[in-house]
Amino acid sequence: MSDASLSPSLSVPGEAGMGDYWELLKPRVMSLVVFTALVGLVAAPVGVHPFVAFVSILCIAVGGGASGALNMWWDADIDSVMNRTKGRPVPSGRVAPEEAKAIGLALSGFSVMLLGLAANWLAAGLLAFTIFFYVVVYTVWLKRRTPQNIVIGGLAGALPPLVGWVAATGQFAWAPVLMVLLVFMWTPPHFWALALFVRGDYGLARVPMLTETHGDRVTRNHILAYAVLLVPVSLALGLTPVAGPVYLAASVVLNLLFLGACWQVWRRDRAAAEADRFAAEKRAFKLSLLYLFLHFGALLAEAGLGTILGA
After folding, report:
1. Phi and psi at residue 10, in whole multiples of 5°?
2. Which residues form a coiled coil (predicted)?
3. Measuring CA to CA, which of 16, 163, 229, 279 is 20 to 30 A from 287?
4. How many angstroms separate the CA atoms of 194 and 202, rounded?
């Protein structure tokens, strides 16, 4: 990695606004982190003081935002050539690279220390590992070197529900581990569906996404394979104490819908996809978002029902 990639020389035309710093934290990614972490915390079989719960989720959100800022700092050179990312604060020049780096490091340290003080140090250690894994293992090491970047790097985005659970309980359990596996197995088909219809972007940036290194057919095979593997993971979570009939019913329906969408992606080639402007691929990508949200939403509903029935 060259020094230029460490500190991209991008000009800063003027002072950044609050919206630019908010965008630096990748709020869309942060929202997923916060939601899954909240479910992990709420589903835990212990009572948590509201203030401790609030501070824990805040720390996890800030840690996720810190990861996003460090990711934008490191990836500014490739972000600047991708249509999907060239408008981000660093490649567009609204935030200086070193400023993004400083913000990311400061927020990382703050979030980990505060979580340790407010909840417990095991949760803080998990948050620190999550930030490290996303920034160093995924962004710095894997992203530009292997088409398995999304598969391995997906662990960082999968860990928040476990961090939330450990913040509440101070220990590990099978239920949050299965939540992690659910997000981990969901990440590759989610991103590969996106990669199929933004393929040119990754090629311009020389990011070895599976679509670029192995082509559409292999990517479509992988999408269907991971969709199939998602089924037993999601159903196994339904057999743990945190789930119940609401979750299981939602999971069965969502798996059928997502498998059907991925089947439609698998059964056609790029020519057919280009003919209808990647309609099936875009449908699978959008459904993947709904798939994860409703699985965790069902867990949240089960926790709420448990509280009501236990009152």
Report:
1. -110, 135
2. none
3. 163
4. 11
Distant-in-sequence, close-in-space partners of 177: CB < 8 Å, separation ≥ 6: 162
Same domain, 27 and 138: yes
How many Å apart are CA 133 and CA 129, to the nearest integer? Answer: 6
| Contacts of residue 260, Cβ cutoff 8 Å, sequence gap at least 6 | none
- Whether residue 6 is predicted with pLDDT greater than 80 in this model: the reply is no
Give the pair of three-digit tokens for residue 163: 């961090």
Cβ atoms of 193 and 285 within 8 Å: the answer is: yes
CA 104 – CA 89 distance, rounded (Å): 14
- The whole model's pTM is what? 0.91
Neighbours of 57 (CB within 10 A): 23
Which amino acid makes up residue 268? R
Report the alpha-carbon distance of residue 216 to residue 199 in Å, rounded. Answer: 9
Q: What is the pLDDT of residue 122?
A: 98
| Domain with 143 in it | 18-171
Quote the Cα angle for 157-160-161, to 5°.
125
Closest CA to 293 of 251, 263, 252: 251
**Spatial CA neighbour of 158 closest among 183, 133, 178:** 183
Which domain CATH number covers 39? Answer: 1.10.357.140
Best CA proximity match to 25, nearest among 61, 65, 59? 65
The mean pLDDT value of the chain amounts to 92
User: Percentage of residues in the chain with pLDDT exceeding 70?
Assistant: 93
